[in-house]
Amino acid sequence: MNSLLFVDDETRLLRILASYFTKKGYTVHTASTGEEARSKLVNTDADVIFLDLKLPDTTGIELLQEFVPLYPNKLFVIMTAYSDVESAVTAMKAGAFDYVSKPAKMDEMEIIINKACEWLKMKLENRALKEKINQMIKDQEVIGISPAMKRIFQMIERAAETDATVLLEGESGTGKSKIARMIHQLSDRKNHPFVSVNCAAIPEQLLESELFGYEKGAFTGAHTNRKGKFEAARNGTIFLDEIGEISLPLQAKLLQVVQEKAFMPLGSNRMVHVDVRIIAASNRDLKKMVEEGLFREDLYYRLNIIDIYIPPLRERKEDIPLLIERFLERHRTKYNNNFSISPDLIDLLVEYHWPGNVRELENAVERAVVLCRGEQLSIEDFPKEIQQIKQSCPQLDVVLNPAKSLPEQLESIEKKIILSALEKTGGQIAAAARLLSISRQRLMYKMKKYSIKHNNDHP
Of 90, 235, 373, 438, whose CA is between 20 and 30 Å from 406? Predict the structure, then answer.
């Protein structure tokens, strides 16, 4: 980003600017009219463009208004001998990066150029990073259009730029391991190991040796020295999944690693130092575990430098259609079959509460694809608990009644829905209100309005 274009009708000034900034290492282009400036922008790679406010065939403001939409990756600076606030405001509103008064001082212009180049560099890096994130989202299937997922992607982007410890919290199946891998792949450690350890899957008596390694003779069966996962992740990232399952004694040793990046293998007196980034995850409420004395408070706060909460799928239902399409696309390629799903079936799947989150949705779609006869998926292809959604939805026979007005017919439909909800919940008003996503007071008002009587209410 060292190419400049100066647009000014003073040829002597252009020669001076070209000579000065060429000696500074810049590639310099010049133009003395608006028409020449248009040609130079098409045929050169100028990054920062200085536009004189007064030109023979146009003005700098008019060129600015023309160029800014056409060249979003270039920066424009207005120059003028007619220094006034109004011109500066107009230029900035039109999209100018900065404003300089003539006769311009070279060092002042150089400061502006350096600022512009830094800004462009940062913009390009951010764009490259976002493209990389989008590609990784596609590859890892950590996708979403919900506000919650957009915030998570922003947090991933920020966390990746640092070496800070990250704590991922959320229910099982929400994609914590995929997010941990994304953070690693976007970081400076991406060319080094990413080591994942499921702390819940390893017996407690073996977990310490698995994490920190051991020396020969440390215990029965330790016939050779063995490096642990922390050493295997040297210069990279270690992902400690289900960290809430680690015992209190092992938490104390882990605290030392988090604080000092050092530990002693089992049966050894030597301290091993490792440069490793730690990402931890839990489907349990670690803060509550701290309060109950089940998790060390000091370890919790050391792990919780950057906290990313991944909400369950039922709290971001707008992501479900997108995920279904992504899973179907994968199976279309795998089975060479153009699988499809109706909007009505998608609406039913969105209504399901998905206790297993994204993992359950992925498995359900795979099951439906395997059982599907042909290309069109049906509700019968999905697991039994999902099929029950259709049965729980009230089937209303809506018949136009010319003798009644539209409001009267809508009230009749509303009454049927309320009766169906009360029947489904055994007459429990609080439960029916939750099913209908309205307040208990609102439901009682509606029941009174339609003379619906149910006394079996257990809030």
Answer: 438
